[in-house]
Specification:
Elements lengths: L7 E7 L5 E8 L6 H19 L6 E8 L2 H9 L11 E6 L8 E9 L5 E6 L2 E6 L2 E10 L7 H18 L4 H4 E8 L2 H19 L9 E6 L9 E9 L6 E3 L19 E5 L3 E9 L14 H18 L7 E8 L5 H11 L5 E5 L9 E10 L9
Parallel strand pairs: 3-4, 9-10, 15-16
Antiparallel strand pairs: 1-2, 2-5, 3-5, 6-7, 7-8, 8-11, 9-11, 12-13, 13-14, 14-17, 15-17
Helix pairs in contact: 3-5
Length: 383
Amino acid sequence: MNLNNGETTCKTFSGANGEKEHFLFIKAPGSGAFEDQLKAVEERYAAAQSSLGLPPGSAVFRRVFLSDVLNQEALVRQSALADPADPVALSIVQQPPLPGGRIALLAYHVQGRAPLSKRRLSPNHVLIEKNGLGHLWSAGLCAGGGAASAEAQTRAVFAGLTGALESQGGSLEKHCVRTWIYLKNVDVFYQGMVDARRELFARQGLTADTHYIASTGIEGACGGRLDLVGLDAYSVLGLDPRQVSYLNAFDRLCPTKDYNVTFERGTRVAYADRAHHFISGTASIDAGGGILHPGDALRQLERALENIEALLKSGKAGMADLAHLIVYLRDPADLPRVGAYLANNFRDLPLAAVRGAVCRPGWLVEVEGLAVTPNDEPALPSF
């Protein structure tokens, strides 16, 4: 099976210790009923796992992009993508796949010499225990519509994350590596989320003088009709401070504190044989925090990717090390130009293009990603 065939794309990192990490992106057919598209994604995903020789239980995280979450989520939860017998962190978010289709899948698998030790702490939290570390994947945290404001819902979803961390002896400050925050209407509710997050972080000990967390704050919706804010997160329990550094390129992007937001541009987590580079949502921004190339989505994409390249370089990585990308477009009408550029430059990279407005209306495109590089520091914990 050709895993880079226009329908399925895979990137694999093989570590010196024999552990493999697989990143897969699965597209659905561009037309047809949702049930048929869901079945096609299931079949393509199963075929990819078979082709890669992935054992049962190797899946860690799945993000399902939907065109209409209120009508589609229940069917996803009844499908093989949400097998209750296999603890997997399942993120389901309304961000319509582009250029068409009602569903797409981004999946992450870890393949080692021994089966993964996985357990579900709650419906929203899965713990992977490996080599003395606990990889906590949190997905689908929503307030349940019980709070009316974005500020209150932000506090509620982060309370769910901090509660899970504290139940395992962890904390947001020391152990959370990456967050994804989804806002039902980013143009309206983003500022409320930002204000609540800033106050919450300060109480948790995260400040401009310490550090923040790599993050994407983007338009998206979870399954509750009244939910304004949703959250996914990745944390590493037992993380050694020596493992963590932060990615910056101040000649190209200003510190986020300069415009009063609280996230890291990127975070690098190093292990004995590899390093993960988590790139936050990145736009066409200049060193003063301004928007470059207003009105031109393609030039904005090029600048965003140049910014990502600079961030990766600060962590001794490059674009060739990318394991996957997610590209968010405010206006699907920009896809023909943007899509052609992506196809020419990232043909064999798992890449999801979805509809998702960015936090400032002038930013027409945002890009996030993950890179994995070899590392040789035997004194650090193993992955």
